[in-house]
Amino acid sequence: MSLYKPSVVRMRWFTENCHEIILPGGKVLLIDPMLVTAAAQNKQLEGFYSGYTVDDIERCDYVYITHTHGDHIGYLKQIYDKFHPLILVNANELMYLAKTLDITPRKMFPLSAPAKYAFDGFQIETFVGEHVPLMGRDM
User: Fold this and answer.
1) pLDDT one-digit tens code per residue, 57-74
2) What would the mean pLDDT of 82-94 be, rounded to a whole number?
């Protein structure tokens, strides 16, 4: 008989730029809060319509920002105002994000790569990556 008990990580996909991860201990990590409702939909946001709103998020302990493009931080301020989560963001973008959205830098955690970080109930290991151009643009 094995003593190993697998941990279940639950994930909810809102749109290609927004994911909610519910960790085994119940903490919630939201990645790139881009929630676009039909009422907010416009030509620039057309591909990001999710039908979800901030009201559909029941808990948020951490927000992980992959990068600070508008289609990745679209509803960060509303999420922050509702839950006051710890925002995990690239160290080079932390002050820009704090000033742009009027969020105290004390509620942000600077990430750099390569590095390992331990949080309550999970760890993050960062490594160097690169943003690629949009697919299909010149096809």
Assistant:
1) 999 999 999 999 888 898
2) 97
Q: Retrieve residue 67's tokens.
A: 């990068």
Angle at 12 between CA 63 and CA 122, to 5 degrees: 50
Q: Say how far apart CA 22 and CA 5 lie, in whole Å.
A: 17
Return the H-helix or E-strand segment holding 100.
Answer: helix 94-101
- Residue 20 gets the label, from left (phi > 0), alpha (psi -120 to 50) or beta, of beta
- Measure the CA–CA gap between 126 and 55, rounded to whole angstroms: 30
| Secondary structure (3-state) at 122 | strand
3-state secondary structure (DSSP) of residue 82: helix
pTM of the model: 0.84
Q: Give the pairing of strands 10-15 and 122-126.
A: unpaired
**What pLDDT score was predicted for residue 128?**
86
